[in-house]
Automatic annotation (TrEMBL):
It comes from Rousettus aegyptiacus (Egyptian fruit bat). This is Kinesin family member 16B. One of its GO terms (molecular function) is phosphatidylinositol binding. Residues 52-238, 289-327, 390-474 form a coiled coil. The lineage of its organism: Eukaryota, Metazoa, Chordata, Craniata, Vertebrata. Residues 493-506 have a biased composition (Low complexity).
């Protein structure tokens, strides 16, 4: 029997029992089933199961909360990344704004400088014009005065004779003064040319020293990298690669065991075999490391011994050098100086060998040997611990593999860096050889310039001597003075006037004698200085030849390196050589023209006014001596080539624009954007230019050689059409009826700054 304790059912039963209408035997099957269900519900209630259910619900809630938190974290990360991206965009826009502002300021400064230059030129022209007008008025006044003098009555015979003598005396004085001035100018020009030649020689010597220093620096870096690569020998690299392969095999077997264990198949034999294989690998590695340690210790002992020997040799050389230096102070001689220089070179070589050995020893003690000992200690520890668990063994294997890969990557990086350094060294050495050729040519040209200048000075001095002797032969002032004295004695003049005239004539005669003596003395001094300068220049020439021979010998020692330059670099070097030679030839031309000008100035002494007139006429307008047939095609323009300039993001192509206007030719370098800017600007001023076909801007392929070559031909055609339109346009300042034969480079540059040569256009790179 069991007891039912449900309160509602108990109350119902009590009521039915009280009523007596229901007995225990009168219950239906439905009532019995309900009571049984109630009993089963109460009997089956279990607090432990209810607690587990609640716990599961709590865990599900926690899991949902965790997922919600992870989603919120991911959203926060994405928002943070978006914020950083927006900040970077704002920063980049700010930098671009600063760059644009800087460009605007630069353009404003360039415009200010240009306007200031134009104003200064205008002021100079106006001042020159005023000066010429004053001189012209002065000359007219002088002519009028001369006419008035001619119209006046002649003075008495004595005064006329006295005036003639005074004029003759003044002429001789003027010629003497001009000769002195020419002598002073020759001295100044000689000093200036000597200083210029000295500066050129110093520049060549400094360039040679810089090239030698750069090549030596690169060679030292190359040797240091070669030392590091040599210490990490090929056998050790092969050992690292083999160990990495063994570790890869062990790792694969351990991963198979781990996968089998995850699937429920616990293969203990496979795990044990892999662990034993790993321990066997560590034993072999330990043996190799021990052998390698012995080799490194032997190498360390050998390096220490070599360092000590090099130190002893260096000390011995220094002591010998000090003794020779003391002997040199007692008796100076060229052979002793040469011996001391050779000893200093030996000391430098010994110091370099000592530094080389010390760097090797330092790298071995501080880097290579400690790394080897650390790896050996780790192998000992692993062997002492014995077989490890699956995860620990796999961790050790992967760690070893990472270390091997780092070693291999380090070796590859050192090898690639060594290759780059070697290429850089070869390139620099080749550049140095080309520079040596250029310097040799420049030295030859300097010698020819010295010879020409010396000959020009000698000719000028000889001309002055001939002129001075002719002046002495032509001078008859003494006889004229005696005749004048006789005439003065017969004249009916006052005694005071006669005594004054005699005193003035005697003083003038003494002054002329002193001037002759001073002129002869100045000529002799100038001759002596010319000979002294020749001696000094010969000494300098010998020094330069010695330096050139030493630099050529040093470059011959390094000629075993094969040059690795492409066609573009070779072309650039040849172009630079030709450009420098052209500059030197122009300088020679200017020097020869200077010497010719000296001779002409000595021969022509009384044409200062005419020269000033010609100078003013050249500055105001062009000479009309051109051929009228040139007006059929006055402007010739072409684009012969293009060059690559800049690096990285600033890399761009520049087109060489060659302009010929009548007999003037110049070249500018411009990039495509400058062409487009000129077209847009002038198209607004002159409507005729809108009909011209201008090559359009391309979004892609701007650095393709084929596109650039095609653009070069289009731009050349555009420029030719441009000038043909401007020469025929009535509104253009270049109209042929307006400019005519006065068309010049200045006219074209004033028309558009595109054709004006900038500061950097004198090199092969241009201004863009």
């Amino acid at each position: 029997m069991f007891r039912f304790n449900h309160p509602k059912e108990a109350a119902k039963l009590r009521e039915k029992r009280k009523s007596g209408l229901l007995s225990s035997f009168s219950l239906s099957m439905t009532d019995l089933s309900k009571s049984c269900e109630n009993l089963s519900t109460v009997m089956l209630y279990n607090p432990g199961l209810e607690f587990e259910r609640q716990q599961r619900e709590e865990l599900e809630k926690l899991e949902s909360k965790r997922k919600l938190i992870e989603e919120m974290e991911e959203k926060q990360k994405s928002d943070k990344a978006e914020l950083e991206r927006m900040q970077q965009e704002v920063e980049s826009q700010r930098k671009e704004t600063e760059i644009v502002q800087l460009q605007i300021r630069k353009q404003e400064e360039s415009l200010k400088r240009r306007s200031f230059h134009i104003e200064s030129r205008l002021k100079d022209l106006l001042a020159e014009k005023e000066k010429f007008e004053e001189e012209r008025l002065r000359e007219q006044q002088e002519i009028e005065l001369q006419k008035k003098k001619q119209e006046e009555e002649r003075f008495l015979l004595v005064k006329e004779e006295l005036q003639r003598l005074q004029e003759l005396n003044n002429n001789e004085k003027a010629e003497k003064i001009q000769i002195f001035q020419e002598l002073d100018r020759l001295k100044r020009e000689k000093d200036e040319q000597y200083a210029k030649l000295e500066s050129e020689k110093k520049r060549l010597e400094e360039q040679e020293k810089e090239q030698v220093t750069l090549v030596a620096h690169l060679e030292e870096q190359l040797r240091e990298k070669q030392e590091m690569i040599r210490l990490l020998r090929r056998g050790e690299l092969q050992r690292v690669e083999e160990e990495r392969g063994d570790l890869e095999v062990i790792r694969e077997s351990l991963l198979r065991v781990k996968e089998a264990r995850a699937e429920g198949d616990d293969d203990g034999e496979e795990l044990e075999r892999a662990q034993l294989q790993f321990l066997e690998f560590k034993r072999r590695q330990l043996i190799k490391l021990a052998n390698l340690e012995k080799d490194l210790v032997q190498q360390k002992d050998l390096l220490k011994k070599e360092v000590e020997e090099e130190q002893e040799i260096l000390e011995h050389l220094k002591s010998e050098n000090e003794e020779e230096f003391r002997l040199l102070e007692k008796n100076d001689s060229v052979t002793d100086v040469t011996q001391v220089a050779q000893d200093l070179e030996k000391i430098k070589l010994s110091q370099y060998r000592l530094q080389y050995k010390e760097r090797q020893l330092q790298y071995l003690l501080q880097s290579h040997l400690p790394t080897l000992l650390e790896e050996k200690q780790r192998a000992f520890e692993i062997l002492d611990r014995g077989p490890l668990g699956l995860d620990n063994t796999l961790y050790q294997v992967e760690k070893e593999m990472e270390e091997k890969e780092e070693l291999l990557a380090q070796y590859q990086a050192n090898a690639s860096q060594l290759q780059r350094l070697q290429a850089t060294f070869e390139f620099t050495a080749n550049i140095a050889r080309q520079e040596e050729k250029v310097r040799k040519k420049e030295k030859e040209i300097l010698e020819s310039r010295e010879k020409q200048q010396r000959e020009a000075l000698e000719h000028a001095v000889a001309r002055l001597e001939r002129r001075h002797s002719a002046l002495q032969r032509r001078s008859t002032l003494g006889l004229e003075i005696e005749e004048q004295r006789q005439k003065l004695a017969t004249l009916n003049s006052s005694s005071s006037e006669q005594s004054g005239l005699q005193a003035s004539l005697e003083a003038e005669q003494e002054a002329l004698e002193k001037d002759r003596e001073r002129l002869e003395h100045e000529i002799q001094q100038l001759k002596q200085k010319i000979h002294e300068v020749d001696d000094v220049q010969k000494g300098h020439r010998g020094t330069l030849e010695g330096n050139a021979a030493s630099s050529l010998s040093s470059s011959a020692e390094k000629s075993h390196l094969v040059p690795l330059m492409d066609a573009r670099v070779s072309a650039y070097i040849e172009e630079e050589v030709q450009r420098r030679l052209q500059d030197l030839h122009r300088a020679i031309g200017s020097d020869s023209s200077t010497a010719a000008a000296i001779t002409k100035n000595i021969e022509k002494l009384h044409n200062g006014t005419v020269q000033r007139k010609l100078k003013y006429e050249r500055m105001v307008s062009r000479s009309l001596g051109a051929n009228p047939d040139d007006l059929k095609d006055p402007i010739k323009i072409n684009i012969p080539r293009y060059v690559l300039c800049g690096q990285g993001k600033d890399e761009h192509f520049e087109f060489e624009v060659k302009i010929t206007v009548l007999d003037e030719t110049w070249t500018v370098f411009r990039r495509y954007s400058r062409f487009r800017e000129m077209h847009k600007t002038l198209k607004l001023k002159y409507a005729e230019l809108a009909a011209l076909e201008f090559p359009p801007k391309k979004l892609f392929g701007n650095k393709d050689e084929r596109v650039i070559a095609e653009r070069r031909s289009h731009l050349e055609k555009y420029l030719r059409d441009f000038f043909s339109v401007m020469l025929q346009s009535a509104t253009s300042p270049l109209h042929i009826n307006k400019v005519g034969l006065t068309l010049s480079k200045h006219t074209i540059c004033e028309f558009s700054p595109f054709f004006k040569k900038g500061v950097f256009d004198y090199s092969s790179h241009g201004t863009g």
